[in-house]
Write a structure and sequence with these properties.
- The structure is a single chain.
- A six-stranded mixed sheet has the order 8-7-6-9-11-10, with helices on both faces. It has a five-stranded mixed sheet with strand order 3-2-1-4-5, with helices on both faces.
- β1 and β2 form a beta hairpin.
- The protein has helices at 52-68, 83-87, 91-102, 111-122, 164-171, 181-198, 214-227, 240-248, 272-286, 298-308, and strands at residues 3-9, 14-21, 27-35, 76-81, 106-108, 134-139, 144-150, 153-160, 209-212, 237-239, 290-293.
- The protein starts with a strand and ends with a helix.
- The protein is an alpha/beta fold and 310 residues long.
- The chain has ten helices and eleven strands.
- The protein is 39% helix and 21% strand.
- It folds into two domains: 3-112, Nucleotidyltransferase, domain 5 (2-Layer Sandwich); 128-293, 2-Layer Sandwich (Nucleotidyltransferase, domain 5).
Length: 310
Amino acid sequence: MANVAVVDIGSNSIKVLVATRDHRNQVVALYEKAMEVRISSGINADKPMLQKENMVAGLKAIQALIASTKAFSPHQTQLVATSAVRDAINGSEFCILVKENTGHTVRILTGAEEANGIGRGLLCDPALATLKDFTLFDLGGGSLECLTFRNRQIEQAISLPLGCVRLTEKFLPDAHTPISEHTRNTITAYTLRALQDAGLGRQISGSHTIATGGSVISIRSINAAQLGASIAGTSSQVSRKELHELFGTFIGHTLSVGINNPGLSKTRSDVFPAAIATLLGVTEYAAVDVFHHSFYNLRYGMAAAALADI
């Protein structure tokens, strides 16, 4: 069957998905791989600029990921970039670099396009097939995408500059300063105000709040390490209590040293405290104690759109 490859150039990692449609016409993954390459250093600057070494590292990751899909002979390979490239004043230079070295054009998604792509991807999740009205929060390195769904249609989509790399640079600029409860409260309050100011509609159903993104996957990875299980074998439910407990493991530590937290990638540990504090702000805004995690994301949304055109 026809299949497509989607390379997602994110702020904190670069990932690829090869997907097709099964006999039920559902989008299914044939192959997925991620590389923890942070191209977004300095994203919180007034005029963010991608550093040369980060662009080179990003290019190498893209080349490796494209090469890894050759066994599947994808009918189409799409490259999409989100907040880090979108916001950088030299983002177009990075896209030219990628084009010259891979032959593929990078499509820089607007905030609205990114949010809607994530929304389309979420609707591919068979575990959510019976949900009609719900709210989605996708936390990335550069931005937080917020969507409300009514009757499985996107009613509202907003992209906010609340990514975990961005907020780490803003609120934890000194890697040698111990993390504190004040740090958590400041980031949580900042997130809450941003959501309120954006005019995002309050969630439709208190029991149906969905969260996606690498930081939520990290939470499940930590749980998997503790249980000695696979990520798929962990609960998809994440509670506010759990978020508070996770942040507590960082209090008193510095980002320069970090802590040994099995299941948490060392390349993501420095932005993880800000991510947890941001998710706490989300739970406060949505007035929920628990949210559901889905693995379906922007890549699935872009794949679904591409497969529909084949």
